[in-house]
Design brief:
The chain has ten helices and five strands, in the order ααααααββαβββααα. By secondary structure, it is an alpha/beta fold. It has three domains: 2-106, no CATH class; 112-237, no CATH class; 241-269. Strand 4 and strand 5 (174-179) form a beta hairpin.
């Protein structure tokens, strides 16, 4: 009975990918992760198909990547064996590229676990990974933080060409954080760490609200920002009010200046 249900979950997973239905993918993904002993052989059977030797058509181009990603989450040893088998098979060029890409991206090891058993993967390019993990472990202990159902957190090195500090991966309920390595001055390091903390809470906010649309959707970003602000205030109950008091004259000055400008424009009109 259990095997039959998980077989249906594999089919649901692929169907959700083909229709871009986030809730279907999430539901099937979580069901399969809960029973790795049953799910691993089912995924391996899919990966043994000769279909990967042919040119992918339509949404099937995404199936190989999602199956390999799932297998890595279920069993790292099985994942590595599957990569070896697929690399020796006569795959279509597109599918071979997918295998090579997934092998590079997911051929890593769990660095540690946060509250609730959330696995953290830290890239070799990130400086001081132990310190980064300590920060994440501290932030994840925040009361009421919706972290326990996040499937994984990846930390990569922030590079000049990147236009993001964090990402919430809708399908997998996972988070990617881009960590800055270049912060030689103490003040810059402190600001970068504070920004990373707020980004962490922001991405957890996307997960908390179970957002289903990719990209910068205004309403989703507003909700994630509100969640981040709430968690940051809880984490720093003294610091946040103190900053508000210290910088209140600056904020009020900016508001007054804007109003004066608007009044001037209105007069000119």
């Amino acid at each position: 009975m259990t095997q039959l249900l998980r077989e249906k979950d594999v089919e649901r997973l692929l169907r959700g990918i083909s229709t871009n239905h986030v809730e279907t993918v999430r539901s099937a993904w979580r069901a399969l992760l809960r029973e790795p002993d049953v799910a691993v052989p089912l995924v391996e059977a899919k990966l043994a198909s000769k279909a990967w030797q042919r040119r992918p058509i339509g949404p099937s181009s995404k199936y190989l990547g999602i199956l390999l990603t799932l297998l890595h989450e279920l069993d790292d040893a099985a994942f590595r064996s599957a990569i070896t088998r697929l690399r020796s098979a006569p795959l279509h060029a597109y599918n071979r590229h997918t295998v090579d890409l997934i092998a590079k991206r997911y051929g890593d090891q769990v660095f540690g676990e946060l509250a609730g058993g959330v696995p953290v993967y830290i890239s070799d390019e990130v400086a001081q990974p132990e310190l980064v993990f300590r920060y994440l472990k501290c932030w994840s202990k925040m009361p009421d933080l919706a972290i326990s159902t996040v499937t994984r957190i990846d930390v990569v090195a922030l590079k000049d060409e990147m236009d993001y500090l964090g990402q919430y991966l809708l399908y997998y309920d996972s988070i990617v954080l881009a960590w800055p390595n270049k912060n030689p001055r103490r003040l810059h390091r402190w600001l970068a760490t504070m920004r990373a903390e707020m980004t962490f809470y922001h991405e957890v906010g996307h997960h908390f609200h179970q957002h289903t649309e990719g990209g910068q959707i205004k309403e989703q970003e507003r909700e994630a920002n509100q969640y981040s602000g709430l968690m940051f205030r809880k984490a720093h109950p003294v610091f946040v009010p103190m900053v508000r008091v210290l910088f209140a004259p600056v904020f009020w000055g900016m508001k007054i200046r804007k109003r004066i400008k608007r009044g001037g424009y209105a007069t000119e009109a």
